[in-house]
């Protein structure tokens, strides 16, 4: 079960969405849905690339998001 969770990067969408909403990013749910729904290959690389595009403070919050893992 732990192996399945570690391979399920899509679970990280929820904390990312929460931070996006905190910083007023419009359509946070839809943007993450487009990134994660029905797609294979969601992993650290794809999520970090997505996080890098977010207009949130580059300091603490962005760094914390980049370090998250399932």
Describe the structure.
- This protein is mostly helical.
- Helices cover 60% and strands 0% of the residues.
- The chain contains 5 helices and no strands.
- The radius of gyration is 12 Å and the shape is globular.
Query: Into which percent range does the helicity of residues fall?
Result: 55-70%
Structural class based on helices, strands and sheet pairing: mainly alpha
**Strand content range:** under 5%
Q: What is the arithmetic mean of pLDDT?
A: 87
Main features:
single chain, about 70 residues, mainly alpha, about 0% strand, globular
List the helices and strands and how they pair.
Blueprint: H1 2-6, H2 13-22, H3 28-36, H4 44-53, H5 60-67
What would you say about this model in short?
With 70 residues, the chain is mainly alpha-helical. The protein is built from five helices and no strands. The chain has helices spanning 2-6, 13-22, 28-36, 44-53, 60-67.
């Amino acid at each position: 079960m732990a192996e399945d969770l570690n391979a399920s990067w899509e679970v990280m969408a929820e904390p990312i969405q929460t931070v996006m909403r905190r910083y007023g990013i419009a359509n946070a749910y839809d943007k993450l849905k487009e990134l994660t729904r029905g797609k294979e290959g969601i992993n650290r690389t794809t999520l970090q690339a997505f996080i890098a595009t977010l207009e949130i403070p580059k300091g603490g919050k962005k760094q914390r998001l980049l370090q998250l893992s399932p």
